[in-house]
Amino acid sequence: MSQIYLDQAAELPESKKYFLLILLLFFGSGCAALIYEIVWLQLLSFVIGSSSISLCVLLGTYMGGMCLGSMVLPRIVSAKRHPLRVYAFLELGIGIIGVLILYALPYINKFYIGYVGTGMTGILMRGVVCAICLLPPTLLMGATLPAIARWIETTPRGVSWLGFFYGGNIMGAVFGCLLAGFYLLRIYDMATATYVAAVINLTVAVAGAVLSFFTHHTEPETVSPETAIQTPMGNWSVYLAIALSGLSALGAEVVWTRLLSLTLGGTVYTFSIILAVLLVGLGIGSNVGSFISRYAGNPRMALGLCQLLLAAAVAWTAYLISSSLPYWPIDPSLAKNPWFNFQLDLLRCLWAILPAACLWGASFPLALACVVLPGQEPGKVVGGVYAANTAGAIFGSLGFSMLMIPLFGTQQAERVLIALAAVSSLVVLLPVFWPARTEIIPSFKVNNPFLRFVGISFLAIAVLLTSIMVGGVNKIPWGLIAYGRFMATWDNQLVPGIVEPNEIPSSESSDIYCIYAAEGMDVSVAVTQQTSGVKLFHGAGKVQASTEPQDMRLQRMLGHLSALLNKKPESVLVVACGAGVTAGSFLVHPDVKKIVIVDIEPLVPREVTPQFSSVNYGITDGVKDHNPRTVNGKEVQVVYDDGRHYINTLPKDAKFDIITSDPIDPWVKGNAALNTYEYYQMCKEHLNPGGIMSLWMPFYESNPDTVKSLISTFFAVFPNGMIFSNDSNGSGYDAVLLGQNGTTQINLNELRQRLNRPDHAQAAQSLAEVNFNSVEDLLATYAGRAADMHQWMKDAQLNYDRNLRLQYLAGMWLNSYMESMIFSEILEYYKFPDDLFIGSDKTIRNLQMALIKSGRKEGLD
Q1: pLDDT of 250-298, one tens digit each?
Q2: What is the pTM of this model?
Q3: Rounded to an integer, what distance in angstroms lies between the CA atom of residue 372 and that of residue 609?
Q4: What is the C-alpha separation between 263 and 258, in angstroms, rounded?
Q5: What domains are there in the chain, each with its CATH number?
C-alpha cells in the first residue's frame, strides 16, 4: 500500500510529495487527541458528575468545539499562510491548553461549586464548565483538517488525499485509545497520559514547522465573482446526508456501547475495545472511500450506495447484539488469563460493529468528492462538510442517550438508526434519478429515461427492504440485562417474557422469571424472581441485590452496623438505593430523623425498590423526586444524581451522622470515582463528630491487588477503619468497610442494652431476620482493622482521582473468583482488638467465642 501511495505522490506537485510524512503527522495528532479525550472526560466528570446528563453535556461541548473550529478557521485565518505552519501552531496550542487544563481544573471546580444549582441552572453550569475547559482545545482540533486542506486541489482526486489524511488521523486515534486505556492509565495516571499527549503535540508541531521550510505554498489565485464556479444548490442534500451519517454514527456508538458492555462486562477495558474497533472501522472506511472517490465517475452515487449498505450493516449489528452474541457458548470465568477474554471481546466487537464503522468512515471522503469544485477555497469546503458531520454527531450523542434510549429503548433506537441510513441514501440518490430539474453537478445526474426508471425502482425496493430490516430488529433479551456476560450459562433457566409475580408457580424447579425490565438513562435494570420465591435486582448485567439470605445479611449489616456504632444517629445519607434494604434498615432505628437517598438512575427508586417493599419497609413507596416524604416517622428524600457530585456540591455545613455507600461493583467503569481517597475525604468532611461511613466491598469477581487497593484507600482516610465480613459457608464472599470520624470504641454492654430497649424492638427483629440474634452474632463478623493490617497493605496501590487505579485493577480481574484466598489472607492479620471492644469480662468472652466459631483463629487468652 505504501508503494501505491508513493507512486501516486510522484504525480503530484512538489509540495504534495510528502504524503507519508504528513500522514505520520496526522497519525500523531489523532493519537494525542484521543488520549486527551479520555483524560478530559474523566477529569471533568469529577467536577460535574458522571450522570448521563453530565456526560451528554461533556460530549456535546467536545463535538461542538470541533464543529465550530472546522467552520471558523477558514474564515479567520488567511489562505496565504502556509498550511503546515498553521497546522503546527494548532498542534502547539492543543498541547499547551491540554497541560493547562490539568492544572486549572481545581480552580474551575471551586468556581463550579460556588455557583452550582439544581434543574436547568445546574445543567447550564455544567455547560459553562465544559465550555471553559473544552472549547479552546476542541476548536483547535476541529481546525486542523480544514487547515491542511488548503494544501490540496479542490477536485475529487485532490480531496481524496485529504481522505487518506483523515484516515491516518483516525488510525492514530485508535493507537491513542489503546495506549491510554491499556497502558498509560493502567500503569501510570492521568497527568502522565496528558504529558505524553502534549509531547506528541509538540513533536507534530515541530515536524510540521520544519517541513514547511522544505515545501512551498502557492497563494490561491483570486477568482472574481463573475468567473467563480458557484456551488450547486443541490449540494444541500450531500451536507444533509453527511449530517445524518454523523448523527447515526454517534447514536449507534451510544446504543452499541450500552449493549455490548452488558455482553462483555462494563469495564474500562471494554469501553476502550469498543471505541478502538469503531475507530479502526472509520479509518479503514476513510481510506477505502478516498480510493473510490479518486476514480469514481459519480461520487454522489457511491455515497448513496454507501449509506444504503450502512442500513444493512446496522441491521446486522442489531441482530448480532440481540439474537446472536448473548447466546455464544462462552463462560468468561474459564479463562486463566484476562488477556484471553480481551482477545475474545475484540473478536466479538469486530464481528458485530466493524462493517458499519467502515461505511461511516467511507462516507466522509465521498461526501467531500460530491461537493468539491475547482476554484473553491478548500478550507471552507472541507470545514463545511466536517462541520455538518460533527453537528449531526452532536445531535446523535445527545438525542440517543437522553431521549431515545430512556423513552423508547434500544430496540426502537436501532430501528431509527437503520431508517436514518436509508433516508440519508434517499436524500443523496433521489436527485440523481428524479426526472425533475435539480441543481446538482450535471455529470452526477442520470438523464437516460430507462436508467432513471431502473434507479427509482431500485430505490423503491431498497425502501421495502429497509422496512423489513426495521421490523426485524428484536428487543434485547431480558436475560442480557439480568446476567450480562454470563447469560449463556443461565439461559436454560430463564423463562422468556415478562410476567406478574402472582403468575410465577411455586415449585422446586430452578426456573427464573422476569417481573420487570427496563433501560434507564444511565443503567439497564431488571427484577427477577425464582420459583423458590427469591427476588433479585439486576443492574449492569449482574445481580446487585436480592432476598437471598446471604445478600439480605450483607444489606442489613451495612445499615445496622452503621446505626448501632453511632450513639445517636439522626441524619443518614445513602449513596445508591438498589433494593432499598440498607436504606430501609435505618427506618427501624428510633433516633434517625432524616434519610437522604442518592441514586444515579431514576428507575431504581421509582420502579425497582418498591418491588422489595416487604424487606425494605417501603422506604421509597410514594416518595416524590427530590421532595421529602414521611415514612415510618422519618423524613425520606430521594435525589437523582451521581453520589459523588451530590456530596461535592453540598454546602460545607451540611453534615450527616451516617454516610453509607453501596454502588455497583468496582470493576464497572466510572465506579472507581466513588472509591477514591478524595471521595472518602469528601465524605468524612460531611460527617458530624463521631459520624460513621460504611461501604460495601466484594471479595468475589476480584483479586488480592484490587481488594488491597480498595481497603488501603479507605483506611488512608479512616485510620481507625474496620472490616466486617459477610461469609459464605465459612469462606469469604463480601464485606462492610466501616470508619468513624473520631476515635472508635464499641461498648458491648451498651449495645446490648440498647437493642433490648422497647424502642429498638424493630431493629432487633430486623437483625434476627438475618440470623443476628445478639450483639455477639453481629460483631462476630469483625475481620480486622487498619492498625493490624499495615504489613498486608504495604504494597497496595491507592486509588486517587488522578489515577483511578481501582477500575483498572478490578476491570482486569472481574472474571476471577479468588474470594476464599483473599479472605484467608486478611484473616492471617486478624487479632482480637482489646482496646476496640469493651464491656464486662463475660461479654468480652462471649464475643471472643463467637469470633472463634465464625472462623477467627485467635480469640481466647
Answers
A1: 999 999 999 999 999 999 999 999 999 999 999 999 889 988 887 777 8
A2: 0.91
A3: 58
A4: 9
A5: 18-215 (1.20.1250.20), 230-476 (1.20.1250.20), 478-543 (no CATH), 563-569+642-853 (3.40.50)
